[in-house]
From TrEMBL:
Underlying gene: LOC115874830
Topology with respect to the bilayer: Multi-pass membrane protein
Subcellular location: Membrane
InterPro entries, A to Z: AA_transpt_TM (IPR013057)
Protein name: Proton-coupled amino acid transporter-like protein CG1139 isoform X2
Source organism superkingdom: Eukaryota
Source organism per UniProt: Sitophilus oryzae (Rice weevil)
MF terms (GO), sorted A to Z: L-amino acid transmembrane transporter activity
Top-level taxonomy: Eukaryota, Metazoa, Ecdysozoa, Arthropoda, Hexapoda
TM regions (residue ranges): 76-95, 101-122, 157-183, 203-219, 231-248, 268-286, 298-322, 342-367, 387-407, 413-433, 454-477
C-alpha cells in the first residue's frame, strides 16, 4: 500500500483523523514507503503532523524551525535600524511641504495608519498559517492565500497576486537603491565642493562609486556583510548625533515658518513620510525569525514599541529641522548643516559610507526576486550559472545607477517611491488581504464595519498613490523644463 495525496489543508474531523492515522501506521508496518523519486511529486502524511492535529488547534508559532532565532530586543533593534536611513533625513523637507502643524498631525496619523496596516498583515499571515498549517509565509504567499479566501473575483486574481506583490517589492527595492546612489553621491559632492575651485558634478561622483557598488553587491552571503553593516550602524548613530547638534546650535524660530504649506505640495509630503516610516519589506522576516513571534504584534510588542519610537523621532527631526533651516533645508538635512565645518564634513562622509553599505542590503532583496525566484531555474543546466548570477547582479546595479544619473533629485525620488510602492504594499494590500481573509464572516455587523474600514483605507491609499505619483513625476519633469536652472 502506498499513501498518496493525503495532504492536510484544514481541520480534520474525528473520523478523518483516525482514518489518516491508521493509513499511515499501516504503511509503516507494511514497509511500503515511497521512493525518493515518488516522493518528489507526492505529499506524505507525516506522523508528527498527525500529532499536531491530534493535540488540537494548530499554532504556527510552536512549529517554527529557526536555526538562529532572535530575541525581543534583537528584533526591536533590527526594526529600528531598518527605519533610520535616508527617510528620516528627508523629514525636515517634508515639513517644509506640509507646514509644521500639518506635519506633526499628518506624520502621527500616517504613522498610526502604517502601524495598523502592519498589524493587519501580521494577523492575516498568522490566521492563514493556522488554516494551511505551516509555520510561516512570505508576503507574496500571504497575498495569494488571502485572496483565495475572498470573493470569487478575488480568487481568480489570487494566482497572479504573488507576481504583483513581487513586482511592487522589486520596484520599491530598486527605487530605494536609486535614492541611496543619489544620497551617497550628493553627500560626497558637498564635501568635495569645499576643496575644489569648481563645483563637482554629482553624476561624476556616481560614476566613480559605480564600480565599488558593483563589487559590494557581489557579496552573495549576508553573513559577510555583517561587519560592514555593524560599522555602518555605529556611524549612522554618530552622524545623527552630529546633525542634532547642528540643529539645536541653529536658532529655532517660528518666524517665516509655515503652519500649513501649499496644498499642491501635500502629495510630496505624503510620499516622503510613507517612504520614511514604512518598513514593510522587513516586517514579516523579522517576525518569522523571532524566538517568540507572538511577542511581535502584542500590545507592548516589538511592532508597537518600535513604530512609536520611530514616529516620535521622525516628528522631532522634521519639526526642529524645519524650524532651524526653514525653506532652505535640502532633500537631506545632511546637505544643509554647516558645509565648511570639519565635523559636518565628517558626518556627511560617515553617512555616505553607511548608506553605501545599506545599498547592498536593499539590492539583496531585488536580486532574490529576480535571480533566485525567477531566473535560477533557467540556468540549472548551464555550465556557468555563477557567471550569469553575477551578470544579473551587475545589470541591476547599473540599472539603478542609470536611473539615479537620469534623475539626481533625492527628494523627488523619495516621494515617488513612497507614493507609488509603499501606499500599495504597506497600506492598500494589507487591507485587501484582511477583508479577503475574513470574507466568510461578512454577515456579522462587526465584519461589515471591518470591510467598510478596509475599503476606506484602500481608497485613501490609491488616492495617495495616484496623486503622489503624478505630482512627483510632474515635479521631475519641471526640473528638466526650460525654466529650470
Amino acid at each position: 500500500m502506498t499513501i498518496k495525496d493525503k495532504r492536510i489543508t484544514g481541520g480534520l474531523g474525528p473520523d478523518n483523523r483516525n482514518d489518516s492515522f491508521n493509513s499511515f501506521s499501516a504503511a509503516i508496518n507494511s514497509r511500503e514507503l515511497l521512493t525518493p523519486k515518488d516522493n518528489a511529486h507526492t505529499y506524505i502524511l507525516e506522523l508528527n503532523e498527525l500529532k499536531k492535529k491530534e493535540a488540537g488547534e494548530y499554532n504556527p508559532h510552536e512549529y517554527a524551525d529557526i536555526e538562529h532565532p532572535t530575541t525581543f530586543f534583537e528584533t526591536l533593534i533590527h526594526l529600528l535600524k531598518s527605519s533610520f536611513g535616508t527617510g528620516i533625513l528627508a523629514m525636515p523637507l517634508a515639513f517644509s511641504h506640509s507646514g509644521w502643524v500639518l506635519g506633526i498631525i499628518g506624520t502621527a496619523f500616517i504613522g498610526l495608519l502604517c502601524t495598523y496596516c502592519m498589524h493587519m498583515l501580521v494577523k492575516t499571515e498568522y490566521d492563514l498559517c493556522k488554516k494551511k498549517q505551516v509555520p510561516s509565509m512570505t508576503y507574496p504567499a500571504t497575498a495569494e492565500a488571502a485572496l483565495m479566501e475572498g470573493p470569487r473575483f478575488m480568487a481568480k486574481v489570487a494566482p497572479y497576486s504573488g507576481t504583483i506583490s513581487n513586482t511592487f517589492l522589486l520596484l520599491y527595492q530598486l527605487g530605494t537603491c536609486c535614492v541611496y546612489t543619489v544620497f551617497v553621491a550628493e553627500n560626497i559632492q558637498n564635501v568635495c565642493n569645499q576643496y575644489f575651485e569648481h563645483p563637482v558634478d554629482e553624476r561624476i561622483i556616481m560614476l566613480i562609486i559605480l564600480l565599488p557598488l558593483i563589487f559590494i553587491n557581489y557579496i552573495r552571503n549576508l553573513k559577510f556583510l555583517a561587519p560592514l553593516t555593524t560599522m555602518a550602524n555605529l556611524l549612522t548613530f554618530v552622524s545623527f548625533a552630529i546633525i542634532f547638534y547642528y540643529i539645536f546650535k541653529t536658532e529655532i524660530t517660528f518666524e517665516n515658518r509655515l503652519t500649513f504649506g501649499n496644498y499642491r505640495d501635500y502629495p510630496l509630503y505624503f510620499g516622503t513620510v510613507l517612504f520614511a516610516l514604512e518598513a514593510i519589506g522587513v516586517i514579516m522576516p523579522l517576525k518569522n525569525e523571532m524566538k517568540n513571534p507572538q511577542h511581535f504584534g502584542s500590545a507592548c510588542g516589538v511592532l508597537n514599541i518600535g513604530m512609536f519610537s520611530v514616529v516620535a523621532l521622525y516628528i522631532l527631526t522634521g519639526f526642529f529641522g524645519y524650524l532651524a533651516y526653514g525653506a532652505e533645508v535640502g532633500g537631506s538635512i545632511s546637505y544643509t548643516i554647516e558645509p565648511s565645518d570639519i565635523a559636518a564634513q565628517v558626518c556627511k562622509l560617515m553617512l555616505a559610507f553607511a548608506i553605501f553599505t545599506t545599498h547592498a542590503l536593499s539590492m539583496y532583496v531585488a536580486i532574490d526576486i529576480v535571480w533566485t525566484q525567477n531566473l535560477v531555474k533557467k540556468f540549472e543546466k548551464n555550465n556557468h550559472p555563477l557567471f550569469w548570477e553575477y551578470f544579473i547582479r551587475t545589470c541591476l546595479v547599473i540599472l539603478t545607477f542609470c536611473l539615479a544619473v537620469a534623475v539626481p533629485y533625492i527628494d523627488l525620488f523619495i516621494s515617488l517611491v513612497g507614493a507609488f510602492c509603499i501606499s500599495s504594499l504597506g497600506v492598500a494590500f494589507p487591507a485587501i488581504m484582511d477583508s479577503c481573509n475574513k470574507w466568510q464572516e461578512r454577515r456579522s455587523a462587526k465584519s461589515v464595519l471591518n470591510h467598510v474600514k478596509n475599503v476606506a483605507i484602500v481608497i485613501f491609499a490609491f488616492l495617495g498613490l495616484i496623486v503622489g505619483t503624478v505630482t512627483s513625476v510632474q515635479k521631475i519633469v519641471e526640473k528638466f523644463g526650460p525654466e529650470s536652472t
